[in-house]
Amino acid sequence: MKLLCESASELEHLVAMAKPFAKEGKVADYIPALSKVDGELLSVSLFYPDGCSYTAGDGNLILTLQSISKVITLALALMDRGEDFVFERVGQEPTGDPFNSIAKLETINPSKPLNPMINAGALAITSMIRGQDGAERIDRILHFIHELTGNPGLSYNKKVALSEYDTSHLNRALCYFMKQSGIINEDVEELMELYSKQCAIEMDCLSLAKMGCVFANDGKDPASGHRLIPSDIARICKTFMVTCGMYNASGEFAIKVGIPAKSGVSGGIMGSIPGKCGIGIFGAALDEKGNSIAGIRLLEMMSRKYSLSMF
Ligand code: GLN
Questions:
Q1: Which residues lie with the beta carbon below 6 Å from any ligand 1 atom?
Q2: Residue 296 CA: distances (Å) to CA of 86, 209, 283
Q3: Which residues form the signal peptide (predicted)?
Q4: Fewer CB within 10 Å, N side or C side of the chain?
């Protein structure tokens, strides 16, 4: 029995109610290639552990993961290096600052990024991904994405990756700051290239919902039952999604929606309701904190209608 959504038409109705809010938002343009997307489109998919799924809205939209990729690289880095190594270098606390802020890197002691869901922490996490060179490391990230989505055809969007690589001056500054304090040891340009590619990995909402479902399903592939992520690591990722997944709007989101979720500046949101289902949303117009404005409204409506809140 489905705990959400009796039918696709019910989901269509909620999308239609949420969609007008997109007009109040703005598509991200600080990465030039992202600004070309139509901000008024909205789509959602739900994916259940039994393999059942629903999609509604402007289906087949393709989004780049952007910050949603931070959850994936966190899981991989924890599998590669173990909890002690990772959390010696990146903290576990929310910041209350914008996702790309540099401020706390200087003021906290010891000097390490506060969590893996902000840019500083995510850059440090990406630098922990094992591999002989950049090519092997992006291949490993992509292979992991292929396992999580069951879709071996997925890759990254070269234009978006290059556009970010060419313009991410603030991320470079974060890297150099962390290199100075010993959090990062590798060449900054190599790390920027890998991070830009990871953020530009693209997929549709259904694949996004499938990834959310693996985390919801305790790290196991819903189709085969094979374990893709150790249970403890899936739990850590979901916990970060609750405390830091929606940037400095995570507290309000926990009150209004109450599910583990991670957003990206492309307007994507991956939700992961423990034991129930994965959610993938794409609506490119953002609110002032960088979250999909219509996507958040849709999740608020879904949470109220289906009593989704974990709290
Ligand atoms: N690629 C983006 C960046 O580093 C990801 C940020 C985001 O989605 N919030 O700026």
A1: 66-67, 99-100, 119, 164, 171, 199, 264-265, 290
A2: 30, 15, 9
A3: none
A4: N
